[in-house]
Amino acid sequence: MSMGIRHFALGILLLISTISTSTYALTLEEQWSDTSFSYKDSDALITDKNCQGHPRFYYGCTDGLQALLNTIPGNDLHIARRTAIIFHKPYVTLVRDLGEVILVKINYDKMLEGLPVEKAIQKEREFNTFMDREMIRSRIFKFAALYSEIKKMVPQQLEKAAAAAVLNAYNSNVIGPRNYYVPNKVRRPAPPAPPSTPPEEIPEDKKVIRLGVGTFKNTKGFLVSNVVYKSGAYNSDIRPLDIITHFNNQPASNMSSGEFADHVRGTVNTAYVLTVLRDNQVLYKNVKLVPFENLNVHSREIEKNLYIKVGGFSRNTCVDFKAALLKYPQAEAIIVDVRGNGGGLVGEMSCMLSPFIGQGASTMEFMDPITFTLNRVLPAPKPEFLDNRPVIVLTNQSSASASEAFSGAIQDYGIGFTVGLRTFGKGSAQRDIIDSRFKNTTLVKTVARYNLPSGRSPQLVGIKPDFEAYLNFQPMVQERYALYESDTHRFPLPKGADYGYNKNPHMKQVKDCLAVKGRAIERFKKEGDYQLQVARDVASCAALYGR
């Protein structure tokens, strides 16, 4: 996958991860059907003259062409340069040559054949870097000709989706990342109309039940990002970072996200077999679907610690979070798990901090994304109660945006500690804007880079954990080769100050305590999830010293 493809695909992943979807996914055609996009909106962008300017325009055009290709069902063509093809001749087959910009079909299986996973990942990255370096060396000609050729390959009914895809890919380079159009039926789905007659109650054995995982599509199938507690996936020992490669012996790599979701849902006790790739081992998981409480916030007591999983920052997240705090007053420390949490409403995040920092304390500073001057400060609202217990935040590479603001504030105020891995590094804020040029569409626009209370920003650098721990004691390849904000955009917002550190006065005592009382490794051998085991040790030690 070239860098252009990688950037565009990841941009879509990040977009989808923040959207609430209906039970059954809409097709690409259905998503954009009532919008007003057409090729006249993208024709003005992909011209030979326009694409030969600043690298932002060049990459806007190359990514725009790739986005256009990606709307073609079953597409396996990619945008590349002739020089890259000649250099990597054993691994690449030339499909069509229209001048300096060419379409290629890359045989990754042959390119990476026989290599250990670590070497294969490095080889792919070297290849991507080489292609990008070669692509920027000389000006590109005949963009318009290639654009016209690709348009002929796109089914007519997908014109609106294709034109929007070109605009989004182009704008992510020229205007800046995280500026994109979304159809309203996806961004803000209309509530269902009230039925004319009371609906019949669905019997329990007829209700549709989901597997209970969050997933991202990759070349092998679907990468698991999180698992819902007590779901069918949880009971079958499916874990974050597993790759689901087959459903009942059917390759998952051939399924769209919607098709995969349709396959793995069913009624109570629906059973099937999932083939899972875990750190180069093939495992077969017998799954039986069971009802589960699909809460955005769920909590339980682990020994003397309160564990709260926060899946996202949406409406009522703070209410549910505070209810969990009050439910377990006997717990000595609080573990807040924001692994895989891509962010959400910053007001909910600020509200969640209020019991720990009090009314009026700063939770975020919003800076102008161009001048980086201070626009406004987001203070914590008045809490109904105060909680003085130490807070341990679990983070990983997929903890982004509001999750980073929450964990960073815990460090800045010295309330507790962070455990896990460096967070994603998204220190920007977006706002929905109505663009009158396109009906039934929302423009998601970057309006600020945000700082933490100390003045530092997680943009590009993320939040570094106070106690680093991988999901496995011996980390898997997927963990060590994670992608961050700096990897997913060519022209991201620049990073801010990175001078913050944990203000907790008991850091040394907690570290000394862990060296003597830590039991994470032995618990990991029985229960798995090394990050959680470390967090439990940190919480127990922190409780000895308080805040």
Name a few traits of the molecule.
single chain; 547 residues; alpha+beta; Pdz3 Domain; 2-enoyl-CoA Hydratase, Chain A, domain 1; 3 domains; six-stranded antiparallel beta sheet; six-stranded mixed beta sheet; 20 helices; 20 strands; 35% helix; 21% strand; globular
Description:
The protein has 547 residues and is α+β, with helices and mostly antiparallel strands. The protein contains 20 helices and 20 strands. The protein has three domains: 3-175, no CATH class; 205-288, PDZ domain (Pdz3 Domain), CATH 2.30.42; 297-504, 2-enoyl-CoA Hydratase, Chain A, domain 1 (Alpha-Beta Complex). The strands form four sheets. Strands 5, 6, 7, 8, 9 and 10 form a six-stranded antiparallel beta sheet that branches. The protein has a six-stranded mixed beta sheet with strand order 11-12-13-16-17-20, sandwiched between helices. β12 (305-310), α13 and β13 form a beta-alpha-beta unit. α19 runs antiparallel to α20 (530-545).
Give me a quick take on this structure:
By secondary structure, this protein is an alpha+beta fold. It contains 20 helices and 20 strands. The chain has helices at residues 3-16, 28-32, 39-43, 55-70, 82-87, 108-111, 117-135, 143-153, 159-174, 184-187, 232-235, 257-264, 317-327, 346-357, 402-412, 477-480, 485-488, 507-517, 520-527, 530-545, and strands at 78-81, 92-97, 101-106, 180-183, 213-218, 221-227, 243-247, 250-251, 271-278, 281-288, 297-302, 305-310, 333-337, 362-367, 374-379, 391-395, 416-420, 428-434, 441-451, 467-468.
